[in-house]
């Protein structure tokens, strides 16, 4: 139906107002998205902008950022970069990942798409962050295994990842994600 609607809207050649609760459906044929909550506009713009840089954790969740990690913003020697300690492990992100102003030593939430996280001991590129955790549990889900990964005391989250193989409970594993794959919000 998305293709049918997209074709119809293109043929009509007029502005169409389409209301939906499905973010993917909205992106399928929108030139401009307006995200509303409780009757208030929370963010508007081209779909690619909203998905790349959501302005709130709530909008990020709508845009598919389904993995949350709590951390603390650390002072950074580079004004174009953020350094966030997640379970005592530093990750480096572009300053553009931060929504709003947050002072160093503030508590933040780092959000990622689970599909942007890779498991393994080797980083996919030099521009990747690495975190180390321990497997809490592996559950078989048809084709792959859902792995619950504990990043350590104070992490504020257990990450759920998909793996093509079962990982033993207690095993230490590394995860990697590209620096520009994350968005960061204040936890005030």
Distance between the termini: 41 Å
Under CATH, the topology of the largest domain can be stated as OB fold (Dihydrolipoamide Acetyltransferase, E2P)
The CATH architecture of the largest domain can be given as Beta Barrel
* Total number of strands: 12
> H/E element string?
HHEEHHEEEEEEEEEE
Largest sheet, spatial ordering of strands: 5-4-3-6-12
Shape: globular
Number of domains: 2
CA-atom Rg in angstroms = 19 Å
CATH homologous superfamily caption of the largest domain = Nucleic acid-binding proteins
* Strand-residue proportion: 35-45%
Write down the CATH class of the largest domain. Answer: Mainly Beta
What is the overall number of helices?
4
Q: Biggest β-sheet, characterized? A: 5 strands, antiparallel
Please identify the structural class as seen in this structure: alpha+beta
Average pLDDT number: 87
Low-confidence stretches: none
The share of residues in helices is 10-25%
Protein name: TOBE domain-containing protein
Family: Belongs to the ABC transporter superfamily.
Keywords: Cell membrane, Membrane, Translocase
Domain Transport-associated OB type: 120-185
């Amino acid at each position: 139906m998305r293709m049918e609607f997209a074709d119809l809207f293109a043929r009509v050649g007029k502005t169409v107002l389409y209301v939906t609760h499905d973010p993917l459906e909205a992106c399928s044929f929108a030139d401009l998205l307006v995200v509303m909550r409780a009757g208030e506009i929370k963010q508007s713009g081209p779909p690619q902008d909203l998905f790349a840089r959501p302005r709130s954790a709530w909008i990020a969740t709508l845009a598919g950022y389904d993995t949350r990690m709590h951390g603390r913003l650390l002072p950074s020697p580079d004004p174009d970069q953020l350094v966030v300690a997640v379970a005592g492990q530093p990750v480096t992100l572009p300053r553009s990942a931060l929504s709003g102003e947050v002072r160093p030593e503030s508590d933040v939430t780092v959000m990622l798409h689970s599909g942007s996280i890779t498991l393994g001991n080797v980083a996919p590129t030099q521009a990747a962050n690495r975190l180390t955790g321990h497997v809490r549990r592996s559950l078989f889900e048809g084709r792959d295994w859902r792995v619950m990964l504990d990043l350590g005391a104070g992490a504020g989250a257990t990450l759920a990842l998909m793996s093509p193989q079962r990982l033993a409970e207690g095993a230490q594993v590394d995860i990697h994600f590209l620096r520009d794959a994350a968005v960061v919000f204040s936890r005030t």
